[in-house]
Each structure stands twice: as structure tokens, then as C-alpha cells.
Amino acid sequence: MKLPKELIEKFKEPFISELENYINSEVELIVKVKSKRLLENKNGQKYLLITFEDKTGILRAIDWFNAEKNDSKIDVGNVVRANGKVVLYDGRLQLNILQDSDIIVLNNNEYSYERFVAESKIPIDVIMKDLNNMIKSIKNYHLKKLLEEIFNDKELSEKFKEAPAGLKIHHNYRGGLAEHSITVAKMCDNLSKVYPWINRDLLITGALLHDIGKIYDYVINPKGIEITKSGELIGHIVKGYEIVEKKIESIGLNEELKTELLHMIISHHGELEWGSPIVPKTPEAFILHMIENLDSKLNRIQNIKEKELETNPDKEWSDFDPNLGRRFLLKHIERG
Amino acid sequence: MKLPKELIEKFKEPFISELENYINSEVELIVKVKSKRLLENKNGQKYLLITFEDKTGILRAIDWFNAEKNDSKIDVGNVVRANGKVVLYDGRLQLNILQDSDIIVLNNNEYSYERFVAESKIPIDVIMKDLNNMIKSIKNYHLKKLLEEIFNDKELSEKFKEAPAGLKIHHNYRGGLAEHSITVAKMCDNLSKVYPWINRDLLITGALLHDIGKIYDYVINPKGIEITKSGELIGHIVKGYEIVEKKIESIGLNEELKTELLHMIISHHGELEWGSPIVPKTPEAFILHMIENLDSKLNRIQNIKEKELETNPDKEWSDFDPNLGRRFLLKHIERG
Amino acid sequence: MKLPKELIEKFKEPFISELENYINSEVELIVKVKSKRLLENKNGQKYLLITFEDKTGILRAIDWFNAEKNDSKIDVGNVVRANGKVVLYDGRLQLNILQDSDIIVLNNNEYSYERFVAESKIPIDVIMKDLNNMIKSIKNYHLKKLLEEIFNDKELSEKFKEAPAGLKIHHNYRGGLAEHSITVAKMCDNLSKVYPWINRDLLITGALLHDIGKIYDYVINPKGIEITKSGELIGHIVKGYEIVEKKIESIGLNEELKTELLHMIISHHGELEWGSPIVPKTPEAFILHMIENLDSKLNRIQNIKEKELETNPDKEWSDFDPNLGRRFLLKHIERG
Amino acid sequence: MKLPKELIEKFKEPFISELENYINSEVELIVKVKSKRLLENKNGQKYLLITFEDKTGILRAIDWFNAEKNDSKIDVGNVVRANGKVVLYDGRLQLNILQDSDIIVLNNNEYSYERFVAESKIPIDVIMKDLNNMIKSIKNYHLKKLLEEIFNDKELSEKFKEAPAGLKIHHNYRGGLAEHSITVAKMCDNLSKVYPWINRDLLITGALLHDIGKIYDYVINPKGIEITKSGELIGHIVKGYEIVEKKIESIGLNEELKTELLHMIISHHGELEWGSPIVPKTPEAFILHMIENLDSKLNRIQNIKEKELETNPDKEWSDFDPNLGRRFLLKHIERG
Amino acid sequence: MKLPKELIEKFKEPFISELENYINSEVELIVKVKSKRLLENKNGQKYLLITFEDKTGILRAIDWFNAEKNDSKIDVGNVVRANGKVVLYDGRLQLNILQDSDIIVLNNNEYSYERFVAESKIPIDVIMKDLNNMIKSIKNYHLKKLLEEIFNDKELSEKFKEAPAGLKIHHNYRGGLAEHSITVAKMCDNLSKVYPWINRDLLITGALLHDIGKIYDYVINPKGIEITKSGELIGHIVKGYEIVEKKIESIGLNEELKTELLHMIISHHGELEWGSPIVPKTPEAFILHMIENLDSKLNRIQNIKEKELETNPDKEWSDFDPNLGRRFLLKHIERG
Amino acid sequence: MKLPKELIEKFKEPFISELENYINSEVELIVKVKSKRLLENKNGQKYLLITFEDKTGILRAIDWFNAEKNDSKIDVGNVVRANGKVVLYDGRLQLNILQDSDIIVLNNNEYSYERFVAESKIPIDVIMKDLNNMIKSIKNYHLKKLLEEIFNDKELSEKFKEAPAGLKIHHNYRGGLAEHSITVAKMCDNLSKVYPWINRDLLITGALLHDIGKIYDYVINPKGIEITKSGELIGHIVKGYEIVEKKIESIGLNEELKTELLHMIISHHGELEWGSPIVPKTPEAFILHMIENLDSKLNRIQNIKEKELETNPDKEWSDFDPNLGRRFLLKHIERG
């Protein structure tokens, strides 16, 4: 489903986030049309205002020369090849479409959909290094071994690094699962200092593995992130149990530790109505649920904030978010 | 945990349900004290009214001779050895305690607790025969093979025949799991005639296996039925998935069939808040949930009715049942 | 509100489901426009792709000759008269609109709206025969008499045969009430074999009558099925009580049987929040609720499945269904 | 079930509320034992402190002479005959049991249970007069006639005057139904002045009839107020509909008025989960629900307040009330 | 934010509600376009049917002369200046657009947005007079003084008279807060006659002040009513507490009265899930909650009814109202 | 309400937690009777087994000499003076009551109830030092000043150090409020490292102040912790708002910061149904809610664990906890 590496390497066209290196230069871009409007200035001249996007950001573009022609050619959602000059306007980057350049709509096989799949802002290598350090800090021999076996398992670890942690709600981008897992583990680590009676090794092992079943829940394809049949009919809670239980079978683990660890995985949604078949009944399971819930919600808030402000930097309040059941103050007071 | 068969055979003392064969004879019983009251007749004579019970029923007993002595000797909940004459009084059996006979309180090791563990009214052999016939009626080769492998697996099948289907709510007696499983399967069989577009083989396979995980949820011991650590921390939904998934791994099964069957097991509680991590998303899963819910509730109603009428045959309404959230009409009009 | 029988007989135009008898013939159809799209083939030729429907199914039609003209003439929702040739294309029937034939939009009085009111796939006569056989199987004289009086009552029985069992949720077509009632009764009949302590006669009587009040809830008119003022302000639960209570008054019935039967009618929604003013408190009322709930939901699932697959035979998952709160697997494994 | 009038007339013994006319006199009382405590004063003298009650109030009594003997003779809940002298102590009435007088426990047939059935503090004749005046104020001829027919119907009106409006929750005393009905009607009358667009006649008719079905829900017998089989299986919402619908059938009423009035009766609980099969969909139905809810709750608050303060005049907070889900401030600031 | 009085006085153009004084005269109006349709009569003549609105009502208008030109000029939502002749047609007022008159679209600064902000149908002076009379009827010196201090406070009283009581749900128009407050107080006054044990002074004081915090929740601006940052982050329950608590601090009040009054303010939403941090625990707080809830809902019902019937006088049922969760019978039987 | 310091100093009797310094010595204790049982050893000798408690722990005691006499003298709940010898038995401390020593029941005025009021295991001075360090770490001048003003305010700070954070649910002991506040602040501090976009100063200020209103919710008196009238009628959410708002008024603060800080206080319960009148709408408010919820629940779990294991060191599962809706695994695997 993924393009071969060689092919991806061939892409010369810069990403939107790289355009700050091209100010006042002409570039050729492969971008998706996010929105467009045909307007008229005071002199009656038509111009076309477009917002382009790729996985790295959004870009304002203006076509002063072929406004009507290009307007009829492109639709929102099209992926296009466009040539223009990168300029700074009002403090933000803008692409001025060249006069003698057509905007060309591309077919699916003329570009890599990977250009448009969002991914974690933290490079996956950084995440995995943090994760390996976290594993090294585990003192319990068997738990550390279990983690090593899972994250050194070629199939599991390949999928883990690619997987999103969700479709829409949170960490819904490539690498989201890994980012979420390590962030939760870090908070659990901090917490185990505040509550010294908590079993740190168990807590961190659970934190790193709690969503591992999601590697079978989603697939990234040209349409974006889609849920799999296994994701709909079985789900990551039970799949995560299966993955970890089988790995434990193969390497052995004290029965009590095994039960408590597996309990953490299946109870991490915290309540039956949120999809855990069993509620947390150990302190570690309880903490894991609350911390992973916190990280999920905060990631969602952060994403909403960034996305809405990127589009409209003056917006004070977010739109109503049906998932969280409220609007958020976008313009809250930032760290001074 | 169970007494060896030889030992059980040795028990000579009849069960309460067998006493109709002993009318006007003297018997020695091993029974549990369910309640007792020291009363006085019009002539000022003290007598002791006791209700005994074993797993087969309850029995009224009267001690006219050593009322006060025996009253001070026995407590509610004690298991005792008692000698008396079986008589018919007011159309019901009664035990008249003999004059020269002491009621003796027994220690745990002086009787088998099996005497007091309720069991299915349908003999387990009859249930298992029905179950095997049901398996034979399956046309899909792989599903039939899967069922045979599971119910011929010595460990699984031994446990299956002993297991209750619950602690309190329904089928909470030895053999209850098997009784529930076959009853649900029979109703599903009937239903597949009314809805011919339903996959009968898949539906019946799911019906027979849906609660199989309960074999690890409960243990029967001298205190009665108790929930295990696995029952509390993992639960039968996930355990059932594990049992069936591993058996499928060992014998092979078409991937789609496997997913749909496992989906039926984990979704059979029907709603997240009732403990299924995924709601039913196939017609067969949906039916299985509704039918097994119906059988659970009806078994509970039937048990409440029998138990309350056994104690008080004139009671019109049941006590309020917190599980079902209502009182039931005990004296509803029976089949004419 | 209904057209006289004679008028309906006059209709010569075949229904869509009858077209398999007309392959390669020219026909004149009266159909509703479900959707349409004006397209262009590789040679730049415009053609109009239409989906027609009547109460018996949907039909793909193509107009190669007057695409633009007919596109501007018809709107989605119009009922039209169209002439074309029935052909087999890609294994499915298709209507090729004739070159010299105009598609004509009809007024309300130029066709019978009955053509577009869906109806039960089981002929009403078959349903009523099943129902009469079910009544004959009742052993209790008074319950059987009550059923006969109700289903022989001219007004009640006329309405019963016409009525849908719902607006949207389930059995929302002519004859749906009768189909639902007999299906529920059949399942209750099967169930009374599995639970022999249940009062079969009472259960079946309740099953056949439980939704009788719906005859006053809906009206079928040119706009489709609409809810009546009585349906909005009183509802079928109370209306059903009134119908049956009055009929009992006129023919007499043992007071206890009367109360239990009426209780079944008003409690059949099972929970207060689902519209029953009283929850089921007898085993028969309990079973009736669960079985009629099962049939309602299964009918909905079956309808969704058929409708979505008719439109798109390759669809794997249904759309999200707000009533059931989930998507369904359309491509589940059918009976082998 | 009620004693004949003649017998009741025979009772000479005063009620507790009448004792203020007997201060410093000796009286013979028939009272129920609400609580008792055997105590010892500083000189080591035993005395028995009893709280008596009848339907008119509670009374503190002290036995200085036969404390131990009488303590062993009476149980809480017994109805007794007691002789004593009425005195004022600490500003409250008290009964000093006479030295030479035995407290005698009475059998069920030695007293009328009516003595202990609480009743409305407003005499039923006053309530019914108010109700008749309210009926006279109705301008719509048919609604007024309907009310007259119902409240002049001998059977209905006899039952109406006796009936409580509940078992426990509110107006749970003889005459409670009538008191509740007229109070709700009065508030609706007031409200119709504030909202002149509301149909006053319809609103008041609905207010007076909304709970009429309760005449078949409860029975007053020696055990107190009990719910009937009809109350459990049918309930007052549907019974009220039946009573009013049949009376309308017999006297005739405009179809629309009939539907809206019956709608008010079945929707007056306001929400499905509170037992109305249909929610209020007219302004009058909406108001009726909210006002009758207000009166029910206030009556409950008032009863709790009176009862708790009668027992302990210094109590600041009520006990937690599970029905209302809170404690109430008993010592709130009274009207100045 | 408000236009100066002088400017408002200058408006010559009549409001829609004043047009009954202009029948058969020509008028110039400033109105908003609510809807429009370009139609054709039988002779093929095009005409433009417009619905205009201002804060006083809606008006049907027809343009027979420049239908197509004006149709292309105006959009729904535009505020326009239009000249026409007022005529009676079919019993309703109608504006016939003049032949030689252009409809002119106005900019924001060419009209006062006040023309389009709905306001209470009861003039604010009438409301405030009622309110002052209600204050005078209070007997408790301190409560009366508190009310006088608040409603004589220039800032508070100015805001109070302008404020709406909501954004959408109820009393969502200028003066709505004052109208709601006095209506609730009047009903509480009536109620205190039916329940004489209630503290009338406290109840009325709470009624008048319960929503006072809303003066900081909303702002009326050209876009209509908008919620403020304080409204989103603090809300009127806590703001109302703050206003009243500070005023009490400044004038003094018995501690108990203060606590009970403030309790009424913060508990008036009645349930935690409706936004009160504490549920009502005094009778007065309880009544206030129920009465203010009743008035809120009735106002909403009345508004829906008026608005839907104004648009379509023949409509029998309202649209589904998501806030109240139902449709309402618009054509209920009015007071005879 | 508290005893003067001098008096407390006078107490010579050691606390239970100090007894490890008295092994094999005779001591005089002032302790509360938690439970007692009169038993008989094999030789028929009676002995009295008592469990004593004070605020520092529980203690097993045995009286071999005056078992029956002392049994009749003391009741569960009594505070007594007892003399005995401290011994080690089965690895746990035990008090052997002396032969010639009477156990004496004390009146309320013969001991300080402070002995029995539980308090935080962390000394209040340590907590306050942590808190002051936390304040020092705040960089925003105004927030730091606000915290200093509040925690240097004599009245507020005295109450803050004494207050519990609850009646039953969590931190229900002297110093519990301070312990909870600083623990939440520490976790928020850690968290602000993981989410660097969060406003640390604001978050920590909110954490330290969120429950400050509880200083008026509870009072510690001889009966234990009781809720005040203000606690019942106003509650700590609104009281906390009032305290902080007034302090801000007196020292001044940027309007935006003020609103966001006050928003954090009133929204910290997270959901309306948990008593916040407004849900969190800023990231800091959101985090504060989740972290303080986590600390509350963990404190409850920890307390349950300690208390149940103290009584029965072999218990595997806690009792069902109605607040958390589950049993907890007491014997979970501790940090290795």
C-alpha cells in the first residue's frame, strides 16, 4: 500500500513547510486544493484566491492572470501541480501563480498520497529513541524483556512506527500511536515519583503497550486513514490483549504479573461504556486510564487550536467540538 | 476441589427431593439449617420449627422433644445430621425429629459441600447429548470441526460441564453454563427458520461458544460459587475470545469466518455498558446477544419464582428484584 | 384515501420487479426519479444516467438521445412516464430510453400513489392465513374467541391488513403491522416449546395483538406514510389497550386473564423510557417485549442491508445508522 | 374492608390531636406504639418512655410505676389501650401513665384500623366544595358537563374522596388524591391569568382529572395503603384514560377536545422515563405536568419537614431523602 | 454599542407592525429579506415574491415590474430600502412594490441594527413598573432594601432593562430578562397563596434576582445577540451570586437570610447537570427552580408557535424542536 | 473548637503509632473501642479480644483476667483509658490488659477529641514548605503576589492548614486539603514539562487554589468532620470563587488572567453533573480537572487499601466501594 522508498526519494518538489527557504524564488509544488474563491478587485479585475495544503501545512496562493480559467479547472480536493513565486505578504508566505503556467490536476498515480497524510511533528526516530530509553529504565527483568521482544519484533515494530492512534479523535496521523504511547509513559514515570507506592515498572510497561492493538485497527491509504474490518469487529482492546498474551506465552512471565499487565490493557478505557470490558481494579490500571485519557483529550485540544488558528489567526473561540461537547478558548493566555 | 467419585457414592443419606419415597419411615439426613424458630403451643409446650435445605430443595422439620436444647445447639447456616420420621402434613412433606435423637452439627470435613451446591435440573449427560446432536447438525465442515475440537478437549469439556454461568444473576449453579449454552443454541436454531437469510451454522456455533470463557471466571468451593482473580481482572468475554482464537489457530479457519465468529463472542453482551468492548455489527451477533439476554433473564425469573413459592406458596408478588428493577407477579396464570 | 380496486386493476404499466419478463422488449413505465446524472463519454457525447424506482425495486436507465433536454425536464422525486427497451447489462436489468420518446412528468392525479408505497414482500393473504392458523391453535376458548372477534371485525381487520408498523424504524410499509405481528407470534410459539412453563395461549394472544393500536397511528397518503394526530397525542400503546379492553367488555373474559393480557399490551416496549407506562411484570409480558424488540431490530437491519446493496452491490459496510447507533457489516457471510 | 359507620361512631376515645382539651384530666386512649425506651433516673428508679401515635399526631408518654412490666408487654407497632393523665411538660403535651392501670395490647378486631390511617389535614368536605366551585367556574359547556358526570358518579366520587395519591412519595393519606387534584387546579387557575393565551377550561379539567386513575391503584386496609394488582399491572395513567374516555363516549365531546384532554391525562408525568407513554405536546399538557410535579414534590417536602420536626424539634437538616436525592434544610426561615 | 437616542428618533420609516395604519398608502420601508422566490403566472409573466421582516413582524411583498432585476440584486439576509403600496390581500397586509422604484441594498452604516433586534412585546416601562410594585409589596425591610439598591443601581438597572435572558432557548430578545424575572415573581406570588407556609418575601426576592447575572452573559450587537467571554467562562449563576453577595456586603443582611437567598440564586437551575453547582435544599429554592423552568419552557413554546404560524398559518404541527425534544401541536384549541 | 495548645501538650499517654518504643513495657493508653469479641479457649477460659484505635492506627488487645466484666462495661465507640503491657505477637504489636487494672470509659470532657481525628501522614509544616517553594517558582509577578496574599492571610492560611478536603470520599482528614493542593500542583508542574505549550504559572496557581473554598465547607468537632450550612447551601466551588475574586479585587490583576483563573476554580469538577456550573474551556482548566480527579481517586484507593489491610493483612480484594463502583485488588504487585 506504501510507495517504495526509492520512489519517494525521487520527489523534488518542496513541501509547504520548506518554502521559507524559497522566498522570492519560483517553485513547482504538488499540493491539494483546500479552498478557492474567485474575486474581483476595485478595478474590476478578477483574481483567484486559493488555499493549498499538504501534510506539512497550508499555503495562500493568488492567481492574477488565469483566474477564471483555473477556477473552472480545479475543484476543492484536487491534487494539482502548480508553479509560482514564493513571496512574503502581510508576514505570511504566499504563492503568486505565474502568468504563463497552467495549474494541472493530477491523477492518483501521478503523485504519492504520502504527501498528504499528516504525521507526528516529532520525528519517529526521536520517539523510538525515547521509547528505548524508557525501556532501559525498567528494572524488572521480565517486563523489560517483554518490551524488548515486542518492540524488536520486526512486524510489530514496523507497524507500530507507522500507525495512527485514531481516525478522528486524537493522534490521528502517522506516528500518532508511538507519540501517544511514549507521552503517556513519560507522564506515568513522573507520576510514579509523586506516588511512590505505585509499581513503576508495571505502570510504564502498561503505558507503552496499552494501545498496541491499534496497529491492526487502521490502514493508511490514498483516501486517508481508514478503519479495518478487524478494527470494526474486534477492536484494539482485544487485539492488544492477544498480541501481548501471545508474546508472554512465548517468553514466559510470572502469572500474577501477566494477569495484572493484561488487565491494564483491557481496562485502559476506564469505563464499560467507553469500551473496556472490565474497569480498572488495580492502582496502576487506574492511573494508566486517567493519564492516557488526559493525553488523548489534550492532543485533541491542541490539534483543534492549531488547525483553527492556522486558518484564522484572529479567532477567539473554537467551533463547537461534538467530541468534547464544548467550544474552547483559542486565545487563552500563553506561557509568558 | 471436588471429592473423588467413590466418596460421593458412599453417601447413604437421601436428598430432600428423594424423601417422597420415605413417607412414614425414619431417615437420617445431612442438611443445612435455613431458618429456625422456637415457639410455644397453646398448652405452653415449647417446640422448635426448623427449615432444612440441601441442593435439591427445602424441608420443614419439627422437634417436639428437645426444642430448647437443640435450639441453643444449632445456628442458621450450620450443616447438621438429623434423624426423624418423614410424614405428610397439610399436603407437604415434614420431618418429625425423633425424641431420643440429638441434632449434630458437622464440621467441614464431615460432609461433602457438594450436597449444598445447586445444580441444573437437567442432568448434565442429557445436556451434553443435546449439545452433541446440535454440533452434528452443523453443515459447515470447519465450524463443526472447531466445535468438536473444543468440546472434545478434555480440559475444556470437563470444566464446561461443571461451570455455573454466574454468581448470582442467572444459571448460578453447577451445569448452568452448559444448560444456558444449549438453550440459547436451540432458540437460535428455531429462529434461523423464521429468518432464513441468517447463517444458521455460524449462529449456532456462536451460541454454543459465547460464554465458554466463564469456565475460568468461577470456582465452586465450600463457600459456594466464587469469582476467580481472572474473572475479576480479565473476564469471560476476553477469555472466551482467547480460548476460541487459540483453538482456531491450531486447526485453521477461513479468515472471514474467524473474524465474524470471534466478533460474536466479544459482542454478545450487546452494549458497551454491559461489558462488550464492541457492539454487535452482524445479524448473527445481534441475534445471539438478544437471545442469550432473553434466556438469562427468563432463567432468573424462573428461579425467583420457584424459590419464593417454595418458601411461601401463597405469595402473589415476588420481592423487589434489584437486578431486574421490579417485582414479578408470582401467581401469573399458568398454561391451562 | 385509497383508489378503488377497479382503478388499480386498470394499470397496464408493469412494475420494475416484473421487467425480467420483458427483456429486449419495449415497455412504458410509470416510475419515480430516484437520482440522475448528466455525463459525457470519451467521444464527448452527453448521456443521461437515471435511477428509477417504484415500490417493487430500482432500475437503471440511460438516455443517449435527449440527454440534456430530459435532464432539464425532470427533477429527483418526479413521477414520470418513460418508454424504453429493457436490456440486460452487466448482469443487471437496464432501460434504454427510446430516441423518439419524451419522458413526461405526471401530476398527482395522473397516477396512483399506491405504485410507490412499499409493501410487505409476503402477500397479505399469506400473512392472514398464517394468522388464522395461529388463532386456531389457541386452546383457551376465551382467548381464541377474543382473537376471532377482533380479526373478524370488519373495520379493525381492514385497517390491520393495510397498516404499516412504523414510519421509519421498522416494517414501515403496507402490511408491515400484520407481518410483524405474525412473525412475533411464530417466534413466541417456538419459544413456548423451549420454556414449557410459559402460558402459550396468553403469549400468542399478546403477540398477535400487541401492536394493534398502530392501526390508528399512521395513514398512507400521497406523501407516503404519515403519523396521525392520534398517533402523536395518544399513541398505539394506549390505543391498543382501548381496542382490546372494549372488545373484552363486549364478549367477557376472566378478570385475571384480562388484566394480564392488557398488561402485555401496555408493557411491550419493555422500559419506561421506550414508552411503556408499566414495565413487564409477568414472564409472558417479558418474553413478548424481548421478541418483538428482536423482530423490529432485525427487520431494520434486513431493510438497511437490502436497500444499500441494491444501490451499491459492492458496499462492505452500511452507513452509520443513527437509530441503531452503529454501522453494520453488509457483506457478512451468508448461509453456505 | 371499611368498618360500618355505626361502629366508628361508637369510639369514645379521643384522638391525640384532641388532647389539648383534656389537660390535667385522665383519659383512655387507643394508640400505636411508635417507639419506647426503658431508662433509669439518677436515683436508680426505672421509668418507661413511650412515643404513641395515631393518625392525628404523636404523643410522649411516661410510665413511672410499671416500667419493666409494661416494657416487656408491648412491642413497637402494637396498638394498645392506655390510661393516663394529660399534662403539659416543657410546653408539650404528655401522658403520665396511671399507677394502677395496665397497658393492654389489642387484637386487630378490637379497634378500627381507621384510627391509624393518616388523612388530609383539610377536611374532605372542604376539598370537595372547592372542587365543585372550580367546576362551576368552567365556561365550556361540555367540559363542565364531563366533570359533573364524573364527580357526581356515585362509584367514582366515593372512591375519589377516599383515595390516597400515593404509597410513599406524596399525598400518601386518605383524601390525598382529592387534595392534590384541587391544589393543582388552583395553581393552574392562577397560571392561566399570567399566560392568557392558555385554554383555562381545558387546563383546569385536565388538572382535576389527571390522577383519577389512582382510585384503582391503591387500597387502604389494616396494613396501611397497599398497591392493587391493577395498580401494578396497568397503572393510573392508563386507567385514568379509560375512565375519562368511557365517560366521554357516554356523553359525547368534540373529537379535538377529547383528544387533547386525554392527551393531558396520559402525558402528565412529563417524560417517558417517568411513566408517560407520550410526552406533553400541547401547552396545557405541558403546564399540567410541571404544576402537578411541583405540588407532588412540595407535599413531600412539607411532610418530611413536619414529620422530622415533630419527632425532633431541634433538627436543622432532614435525613437524606432517596426520592428527592438530597437533604433539606428543616430550619429554613419561615414567613416573618 | 447602542445608537444614541436622537438618532433613533430620526427614523421616519414605519415598522411592519405599524403598517395597518398605512393601508392603501405608499410607504418607504427599511426591512430585511427573509426569503424570496421568482415565479411566473399563467400568462408567463415573471413576478418576485418576497418576505420581509423587521423586529416587529413579517410582511409579504410582490414585485410585478422589475422581478428579475430585483431578484438578482438582493440576497436573503440583506437589509434593503423598498418603496411600495400597502394593500390588504386575502385578509393579510401586503406590499406591492412600485414600478419606478428600485429596491436598494443598504450597508451596515446606513441603518440601525436595532431595527432588527427583537424585543419584548411588553414595553420595558410596563415591566419595570410591575417590578417596582412587586418590590413595594415585600414586607421584610432588608430584602426590600436590597432589591431597591440593586434596581436603583444605575449600571445594573440599565443593563437589566436591555438584557435578553438567552441566546436561543427562551426570552432571547431585548427586555427578555426583565420580562422573565417579573413573570416568575408573579407566579411565585400566586403560589405563596396556595402554600401559606412558604416565605413569600424570600421567594419573590429570589425570583426577581435569580437571573441577574445574565446582564454580563450577553451583548447585543449588529450580528444579533452574542455570548460574552464572561458568559462562556464564568456564567450567570456565579456572576449573579457575585452581584448580590457584594450588594449585601455593602448594605448588610442577616447571615441566615443571606445564605438562603444566595442559595436560591446558585441552585435555580435545579439539577447539577443543568448547571447549578448545588441543588435546591430549601422549599423556596425548590419552588423558584420549578417556576422559572416552567416560564422558560412556556416562553419557548409560545415563541415557536408564533413564529411558525406567522410563516405558515395553516401549519398543524411545529417542526421538531431539539431543545424540547419533541414537536408541538400548533393548532391546539385556544381559549374559547 | 480546638483545645488550647497547653492542654494538648499535657497528654502523656502515647499514641498507638508510638508503641513500638514501648515493647515489653506497661503503658496507659487513651483509645477508642473499634470492635470486641468475648471468646473461650479450649480449656473453657473466657477472654476478651478488643481492637483499639486512635488517629495513628489500630491495636489488638487481649484481656485474660476480667473478660466478662470488661465486656459488659465497654461498648464499641467508647473512648477508654486502659493499662496493659505491650508485646510482640505473631509479628504484630499487642496489648495484654493487666490483671489488676480496670478499663475505664471516659466522658467527652475527659479527653481531647483531637486524639481521634485522623490527619495527613505528611506533617503540615512539610506540606506548607513545599507549597511556599512552589509559589516561589511562579514567574508571573501578579499570580505569585496573589498566592502570597492568600497564603499569608492569617485567617485563610490558618483554616487552610486545618481543613480536610472531604467528608468521606478523599483526603478526609486534618491537613487533607493542603496535602491534596500541593500534590495536584506538583503533578501539574511535571505535566507542564511534557506539554510545553501550557501556561505553567496559571496552571500551578489554579492547582494551589482550586479547593480553597473547602475551608468553609467542613468543621472538625467531637463527632468528627461535619459539613457546615455554607457547605450544604453554597459549596466550595462558589466559595472558592468568592475568596479569590475578592483577593484579586484588592490587589488587582489583568482582566483576562483573572477570568481564566476564576474559570479554573469553578470548572475544576469537570462536568456539570459533578457540580461545576461551567465545564473547562481552557487547556489549563482541563488539565487541572483531570489531575485533581486523579489525585482524589488515588487517595481514596490508597486509604481503602491501607485501612482494609490494617484490619486484615491477608485480604486479597477490597470490599465493594460504592463511590468508585468496584472492588479493588488489595494484593496487587508492589514495586519490586
Class per helix and strand makeup of chain A: alpha+beta
Topology as H/E string of chain A? HEEEHEEEHHHHHEEHHHH
Tell me the number of structural domains of chain A. 2
- Going across the major beta sheet of chain A, what is the strand order? 1-2-3-5-4
CATH level-1 class of the largest domain in chain A? Mainly Alpha
Low-confidence parts of chain A lasting 5 or more residues at pLDDT below 50?
5-10
What oligomeric state is this? homohexamer
Mean pLDDT across residues of chain A: 91
Q: Largest interface: which pair?
A: A-F, 46 and 46 residues
Main sheet record of chain A: 5 strands, mixed, barrel
Number of strands of chain A: 8
Tally of individual helices of chain A: 11
Query: How widely separated are the two ends of chain A?
Result: 45 Å
Described by the principal axes of the CA atoms, the overall outline of chain A is elongated
Helix amount of chain A: 40-55%
User: What is the name of the CATH topology of the largest domain in chain A?
Assistant: Hypothetical protein af1432
Keywords (chains A, B, C, D, E, F): Hydrolase
Domain HD (chains A, B, C, D, E, F): 177-297
Pfam family, one (chains A, B, C, D, E, F): HD
Protein name (chains A, B, C, D, E, F): Metal dependent phosphohydrolase
